[in-house]
From TrEMBL:
Transmembrane region(s): none
Any one Pfam family match given in the protein's UniProt record, by short name: DUF1223
Species the sequence originates in: Ruegeria sediminis
Protein name: DUF1223 domain-containing protein
Signal peptide per UniProt: 1-21
InterPro entries recorded: DUF1223, Thioredoxin-like_sf
Matches recorded under SUPFAM superfamilies: Thioredoxin-like
Keywords for the protein's UniProt record, in alphabetical order: Signal
Amino acid sequence: MFRSTTAAIVAFMSLVVPAGAEDNPVVVELFTSQGCSSCPPADALMHELAGRDDVIALALHVDYWDYIGWKDLFADPAHTLRQKAYAREGGRTMIYTPQMIVNGQDDIAGADGLALMDLIDAHRSEAAEVSLRADRAGGQIGVEVRPLDLPHGDSYDVQVVQYSPLRHAEIKRGELAGRKLDYANVVESWQVLGQWNGAEAQTYSATLKSDLPAVILVQRAGQGPIIAAARAE
């Protein structure tokens, strides 16, 4: 039953998306851990999401499962803090894995691929509030944000995230002991380029920390909604 359901979800997720959808991609953040026995199905969904132009998929490995006998090789305490901030913003009293956050707003527990697809479709249908352009030349990145139909009064963080498209782990202890797993779009660095008032066009520039792929996120300050995202190419 599990295999047939997973296969159906994967097939659905691989469907061709509308032309131009990549111009306003939906951001899916997965909070996961190599110490979590229920995480592999969600990790598998990330491989499918990583192949879609209309989605920016980011895997943030957390450290709070390390105590059970296996230290996650990709974990960063900053990822745990980000997940806690989402919980506070959403009025939730606990954090857990696996959890997916869609565009900084909606959360999904576990690996509910059908619910995830519904949320992606809903966010993809929303009109763009911001024009976002990101250009990359070697180790330098330039970003321009411009309001389209954005309410006044909020402030936003302009962020650059770099990730490894594929990483492998051989887990020797803990709940997943003996498993050899591949992980997609593992977040390696997260920088805030600056703040934006949302009222007028503004540009940013920065030196990237590595030659890994990079994406730009514009997010309401205080761990609010992600209102724009783009790949830096």
